[in-house]
Specification:
single chain; about 290 residues; alpha/beta; 10 helices
Length: about 290
């Protein structure tokens, strides 16, 4: 499951056709794939979500795109920390402002697609019915996409709501901090279905820095150590100051030897690094070759 959703999170950076093709190679062939997008440059909104529906209709995978590397305004949105309040039934939660704004930009479009799936309709051709209504929803994302995946799951509200009952798991990869402390009970309950994957030298899960506001991870964290994913008893700690992040940017351009000596490296944040670690040995890759 981590490999499947890791592929979804990585190819959420591609176009709809590419995303659909890669997911079809992993078992979602013959289903439906749609995207929900919103871009408002001046407001630092660059929100893209892909939904892929299984042929029978029972399963839907929702993948959020992360920060686009060559888009400065996208990075500026990541730096718009805030935080700001996010409504949760009867509870208070402060969240990263820029992430929350990007979630809200496409949230209603995503919910409209999921409601079609709940009604047993094809996402690609709503007039056509599929064999079964939505029974299992999985949400994923890499980097910013991971933060949006977590905030979307929180936005579903009480566990008794229809979509919240269909939510099986959230898988994130290199996810930055998105929720402020203290965490309400809703976050703690959702944490049982949240699986965060982190490389120890990936700096993004430590950001934004505490000097911009106190944030905290929740859910189950898995770290890549000694060639395997291991459950961590503690979450990655928030970095104290953004100044400590600067060497990790430079490390991306250093030689492999000097990069290995650095505490952090952006080279460990790129999605294909996560895919390499997630792919089961001997499995045919999403590119059609032998892993």
């Amino acid at each position: 499951m981590a490999h499947l959703l890791g592929v979804g999170s990585a190819y959420a950076y591609a176009d709809t056709r590419t995303f659909a093709m890669m997911m079809s190679r992993l078992g979602f062939g013959g289903g439906a794939c749609v995207s929900v997008e919103q871009t408002v440059d001046a407001m630092f909104v660059f929100s893209t979500a892909y939904l892929v529906q299984s042929r029978c209709g029972r399963v839907v995978l929702l993948a959020y795109r992360g920060t686009e590397p060559n888009n400065l305004a996208n990075w500026l949105g990541d730096a718009d920390v805030g935080p700001e309040p996010m409504p949760l039934a009867g509870e208070r939660l402060a969240v990263h402002s820029g992430f929350h704004r990007n979630l809200r930009a496409t949230r209603w479009g995503v919910l409209a697609e999921l409601n079609l799936a709940l009604e047993g309709r094809s996402l690609l051709a709503p007039d056509r019915r599929v064999d079964h209504p939505l029974a299992a929803l999985y949400v994923t994302g890499h980097s910013l996409g991971g933060a949006l995946a977590v905030l979307f799951a929180l936005s579903l509200g009480p566990a008794e709501s229809v979509l919240a009952r269909k939510l099986r798991a959230i898988y994130t990869f290199g996810q930055p901090l998105a929720t402020a402390v203290p965490l309400p009970g809703a976050a703690q309950r959702l944490g049982r279905r949240l699986f965060r994957h982190v490389f120890l030298r990936d700096p993004i899960p430590t950001l934004p820095a505490a000097s911009w506001g106190r944030l905290a991870h929740f859910g189950r964290e898995y770290r890549w150590q000694d060639g395997e994913w291991r459950r961590s008893a503690t979450a990655v700690a928030q970095i104290a100051s953004a100044r400590k992040f600067s060497p990790s940017v430079l490390a991306f351009f250093l030689s492999a030897k000097r990069r290995a000596a650095a505490r952090y490296s952006l080279a460990d944040h790129v999605p294909h690094r996560y895919l390499e670690a997630l792919r089961p040995p001997g499995r045919v890759t999403e590119l059609g070759d032998q892993g």
